[in-house]
Structure formats: C-alpha cells, structure tokens
Amino acid sequence: MARLKKKTIFKRYLTVMKRSIKRLNRKSAGLWFKINMKQHPFVLGFLFFVWINVVLKGRMFAKTNTAGILKFHSAIFILWLTLVIILNLLKDKQRVKWYLRKRFVFFILLLLPPLGLIFLWSGAQFKRTTKIIFTVIFSLYFVGGQVYYNKKYESLFKGSAFDNIVEIITSPKKKIFLQTIDAGALTGLKIGGIRQGKSAKLAISEIALRYSPAVVSIKVKDKDDKEIGQGTGFIISGDGIIVTNFHVMESAYQAEVKIGEKVFKEVYLIKGVPSLDIAILKVNAKNLPFLSIGDSDALVNGQFVIVLSNPAGFERSVSNGIISAIRAKGNMKLIQMTAPVSMGSSGGPVLNEYGEAIGITTLASFFMTQNLNFAVPINYLQKIINEK
Question: Model-level pTM greater than 0.85?
C-alpha cells in the first residue's frame, strides 16, 4: 500500500512538472531561476568551491580553449540545476533549514569557508557583529590556505622530476618504535661479492632459484597489533641481519618477518637512516641463506638487473630490466632502472648478473611514466655498516 502511495505521489509530481514545462516562458523561467538561486545557497557555495579550486589549482582556464571553458561551465550549470530539482522534491520534508543551524554553519566555515560564508549570511542565527568577525577570519583563512597550497604546487611543478623523487626518498620520516639492539651487532660483519676471477653470468631462472630464499616478507604493525603496511627485505648475514627500506618500517611498534615458511615475530631494529631510506633489522636465527653484496660504484648504464620482491604480498616474485641511468643530486645517488616493481616491493634487493645485491628497491613509478623505478645503491649500506 505504501509503495502504491509513493508511486502515486511520484506520478503526480511528473504530471505537474510536465504542465509547468508546457507553460514555461521567458518571464516564468527567469522568475524560477531567481527564486531558486536564493532558496538553496549551499548549492551555490558548493559549486563556487569546485569552480575556484579548478581555476586556482588546476589552472584550467590558462590551458584550455574556449570550447573547453564553455563545456566546464555548462557542466557546472547542469549540476546546479540537478541539485536544485532534487532539493525541491524534498522541500516539503525540509521544514527546518538544517544547513543554517549554528553548529553546522561553523563546521562548514572550518571545512569549506566559501560555502560557510554563504550559509552565514543566508539566515544563520548569528548576531551581525559575529557574522562580520567570522567573515574576516574565515576569508583570511581561506585566502591564506589557497596561497600556501598554490605556492606548494608551484614549487613542486617547477622542480625537475628527479629533484622531486630525491625529495620523496630523503624526506623526514616517522619514527620506528621497534625494540632496538646495539649497533655493535654490525661490528665485524663482512659483506662482499661472490665473484672470484671471471665468474660466469647467471640466467634469471638460476638467480631466482639460488637467491630467492634470502628474500623475506615483512609485515608492519601498530601498537594495537593492527597491520599498517608490508614490504620486502633481504638477509645479509646468516645470523638474521636483514636490510629493508626505512619507509617500510615507519610507525612500526611490532613487525613480522617471514623467511621461507617460518615467521619471526620478534624483530629488532639495529640501525635506521631515514635520509637514505635504509633500515637494518635483526631476528634471532642461525644458518639462514643470505645475499652477497656487490659494488654499486661499478654499475654502468644498460647493465642487466633482476629484482626479487613480494609485490602486494605475492612472495618471491621476479622481475628484470636494465639500468637506465645512475643519477645524482648533491651527495645522493640513485639507480634508475626499468625492472618493474609494485607496492610491497620496497626494500627488495636489486641483483646483478652474478647474483650480488647492488641496490635496494625504494620507489616505483605509480604516478609517473612506466619503466621508471629507483633503487638506493648498495654502497650506502656498506658505509652504514662500517660507521662506528
């Protein structure tokens, strides 16, 4: 019965709408627009917020032709018309204008100042003095925010792509809260290459078979034992010393390291260097498979590389490519490579044709072009270990 009543109301509304359209003329249309412009000020506020963000942040009007600008404004008008019609349908149920209540208006002033100011002067129950004070405060708040973010975006766009990548990798990071052990655990640790004389280069399948067991999966947890991230690492010593990215371990209160089928729940932090995006961990184990370390200073453009990692939790994945370039900014060097990597690959080893680790995967090209991925040279790890 209720459904039948709703259908009847809807049919009645459609009938009235059809009659209204038939009687529509220039005068009545103008009157309708004039009334509805005033009736729903928050719709105008919302659309104005969209418009100003597109203009200021997207710089649409500076890069778009006349047809594109007209298309954009037509879309804004159609959106306004749709919202007004929907609100008119609900008008009978909206006896109280909830969007003009003091608490809601103040909340919108904080969230979207242009929309809040329209609410403020459209009938909100504030004193005139309060309205003036709020208008000044939130106008400055909005303009200041737009200027700040505009400058931030401009500095981002002005910098080169590589400058931005270096900034991302070397930027300050959140603290690691894992239980620490003395850096003396690295004393006497010798990591070196496996080549003696003229060693033969290995096939990808052979490298994956030999060295995948030394690649580990890492799950990071917060203080409530909730998983907040995952990544990859690799073992550099048989007694359980593991290397990964610092950003993989950010905010970690606990961590789990999976080596083969065994899961280690007691994971310790030996050393972390956020500016190089390197963290060195320790698990209590013996006789683990581990990787030998190569010389990243000897790398050349076009050299073949293999990445072992756990992208999106898919353990022991293998990808290959070449070194596109060794790039540097100031004292920071990075390996640019075409070997595909994905989320979860961070901290995985980049190997040369002999199976030596020559880099640590750190950044993939999620928002850039394809085949643009980066690794931290392994010689930085050598320096960290040798520091006293």
Answer: no
